[in-house]
């Protein structure tokens, strides 16, 4: 008996009935039994909500919670007392599932029974559903809420629910809330997850029966609830997550299966898609979905719908794609927009294969839209289409295969857009083409291969379809590289050309553009340029043009101001060195390439480039194995000089295991008197660095031979200094021989005797190598000794120099006079460096030589000697230093370059100051006819501003404008002292030099802006100062003055335009371009090193507010300034009008509320100017819109 009770209790606890028991129970009666639990009267749902809200404010752990009246309601007490209510609710659902076909049950019968109160029933259900909000952790509340809601929904499947008012919108909305409430309150609750799955299945069955056409809000809420569940479970890791996801998809699919008109079904599918768009942003977890119809991602669901309900789904997906591309109302974040583009491309491809329909024609129209956003979106979508896989279901026999794939049309669209008027569209088109070349699908890669190779025998249909676009593609890329100012456009063009440059090696335009780009201000462009030439030389190691171009680019990049660029160039050169193999293994083009490059570099006299690379080389390159490989080439005829060059450079870092081999080669050269080869100097460098590693016998033998050569004067003059140094260095490592001082004295005595005995005929001899050699040996040995040079020799040298200055001796090649003179000047300079009196006597003579000599080698040598002398005797050389400065304007480019290099050297070492004559002449060099001199002078000025005085350009700009026009009207010109103002200023004076002056002003504007943009605005303060001087009649009226004021007004106009270009926000003003900023690539903003240094040195940092205040003051006095300028000379009216117009446009926000009548006219000018552009743009848009009326964009 006890056992039977336990069994009954177990059955009751599990709320289960057997099938036979269920079959004997009447559904009608069970439903009517629910009345036992109904409240006595119906209540308004709003009042119930207010009541529940007040209850929810009480904490469930407090004593007041237990006394809540909700639990004290009579019918609620009865319900919570036992589980009979829950059992009845479950039983009803079981009966509905196993309903006897003989029993007729509908709501009309239930209500007409006279016992069932629908209002009380709804109140009953509403109360129970709301219980879950009071305490989510109460098990009884959970059971009652979910069972009441589920049973209510299931009973809606009985006929007559709507007629008998059982269907209640508010109650159904609460049920949806209950269906979704676990997302808010609980996570990973297995009980709730099972309830959700059952509820979804039940509501799916009900809504398959019940028509929702007249219940649009319920339908929308239903879809929103399903999407909310999907969002939660797509992110969830719960055990039932994947099952719940699939049930949700089944519910959505069931909405599309109802027997409705096609239009209504398509509207429902469209509504489902719109409400589920956000689900595309959730990354799929790719869980196991056994026996599932599709994957768990929302896109998989719609692709499944496309395969089942092709036409309706296709229309919706195409509508989505077109809306995404053309509707500006969509304000997605960039990352989300790109995600949707990926999904859209996936849908489009499926439509293409399954429905035989493409969006290409729409894209063609969109690419021509007047709205740049449309064109931009079109280009980005084309990129996605090129990247997405083109494989399709081979089981589907669609007559899609054509000789010309649709990727051809996509590429044609992109070809057209790289000529777009908007830079951001150009950039995206180029990026899309690059992506297609590198990572495109099979069709895309095949097409680009044909485009680059231009093989008409292979797939001529594709090439014919592309037409002229193939021919114009490379031309357009080169044009963009040459003329575009956008960094990322040029960078992307170079990235494309990496895959398409082999056929451009012989194109002179291509070569010129690549070399020009080495001076591009962008780090990214130059790095990409280096990658391009590296690829070019890798693919064409035997092509001379490729090698020459590679070397030219490296030479230019190695002198870049950015250390990162220099390091990258050095790394590229070291990469070539690493290909060096031993002579017997040098068999491929890659192995020969390093020697070819070294030879060309030496031919260009750029050995320093090789040195920099070797100095930066890592130990991985400098190994004994690599050294042995290089040594095998010093005996060959092809690469001997190049091998000695590399050995001389690496000798400091690594020593040979067999160094005496070098001594043998050296002695062979000495014995054969083979001094003139390029190898000999390189051999001496190797010996200098390896001197300690040679054997004692080798060193002794070498010292003996070199001593004999020096004693006999048999050494060529180019080798005297090197041989003397190596000889003394070698002797210092040996014992049992005379010391170096005695050796120097002995050699000095021999050389002095020979010079004194033979100097009288020195000027008459045509070639006297021995005399020149002894003169240099005397100079070298005397420099080593602490003795004054012999007075007789000094007198002889000065006598020779003065005869030339007096034209008593002719400087002619017949008697080798230039070379003799250069050696005499070098020796006198070396003596004078140690002797003040001698320096004072020599400096004026060298200055005279600079003035009178016309021989290039003599002038360059004299400049260098004065440079050396200045570093030791600065005050002595200062009075004559102007002679070097004047050589900046010599007719010879060699002389100008030499003068520039030496002046820059002295300025950077603070031996002379960057002001006055030095500064004004260096500035004039910026517009020199020679491009190299231009670059070096610009680098000199900018290097000085970086390291010494960041405000230099700012402080000297306006003064320089007056000086270049030879208009000197001030007592003191600041950085240009009056005592240094001379005829050299006339170099840029006059109308014929206006172009050069304006080019120089552009340099000033750009670099002042780069260093400190605030300083550029502060220059406008000069208008106030000039107005005061004009008012006091301090400016003389002459041609120079008129030209000076024209230039100054032009400069002020450039400053205004620069502010407009940079889109600076003055006061409240400033509009953003928007499109360029939004789509500019992952650009990393780097602070200018120049600006940082300027900031460090300027303790009183100026702000933009300071600059604005200055501009406001200028604008106040500007009308008076205009009157005074016109009074000065009427010819200045056009220049001042242009300045006024520029101010009105670029400082519109500052003059907007001005009460001065003058600025009213100015505003009208500015408005007319801007309106012209707007009208022009409007006409373009209108014409484009006419073409696109039918595009549905």
Automatic annotation (TrEMBL):
Q: Name one GO molecular function term.
A: histone binding
Cellular component terms, GO, for this chain's entry? condensed chromosome, centromeric region; condensin complex
Basic and acidic residues composition bias: residue spans: 1161-1170
Give the span(s) annotated as Disordered: 1066-1099, 1161-1193
Keyword Aminoacyl-tRNA synthetase among UniProt keywords? no
Q: Where is the composition biased (Acidic residues)?
A: 1074-1083, 1183-1193
Q: Name one GO biological process term.
A: mitotic chromosome condensation
Q: Does the keyword tRNA-binding belong to this entry?
A: no
Keywords from the UniProt entry = DNA condensation
- Superkingdom to which the source organism belongs: Eukaryota
Protein name as annotated: Condensin complex subunit 1 C-terminal domain-containing protein
Q: Which species does this protein come from?
A: Polypedilum vanderplanki
Q: What is the lineage of its organism?
A: Eukaryota, Metazoa, Ecdysozoa, Arthropoda, Hexapoda
